[in-house]
Amino acid sequence: MEVRLQGQFERPLLRLGGLERPFAPTGPLQYSLQLPLEASGVATVLEGEQPRLRFSLPAPAEWRLEDGQANLERLSEATGGRLLASPAELATLPSRGPWSLRPILLALALVCFLLERRQEYLRNRRLNLTTA
Q1: Intra-chain end-to-end CA distance of the chain, in Å
Q2: Engineering a disulfide at 81: which of 36, 76, 113, 121 sits with its beta carbon 3.0 to 4.6 angstroms away?
Q3: pTM of the predicted model, to two decimals?
């Protein structure tokens, strides 16, 4: 497992399980440290003797590689779908056509037009009442 650190540090150290390991500079303001894959727990980045950063390393089980086929099948059944065997099956699935927005936009334009005419009518009526 690789731990990367970015920032302005002077000789940063990583304390993990009572042991301190130095970071190796890998570029400007970049440091790297290799840890064994089974390393876990809370790690502390030290600068001098001052702790600068604390973080938890993931448990090894979180990084375990596994085949997710059973999980995908269970998920597809629970959501009412089915699991495709290959991407070529996508072409055989029924597809929905494009949905026309024209009727909705025409209705919206008509409503806006009528509201604008009503507002003009009310404004003219108010002006006629004040000038009379």
Answers
A1: 86
A2: 76
A3: 0.45
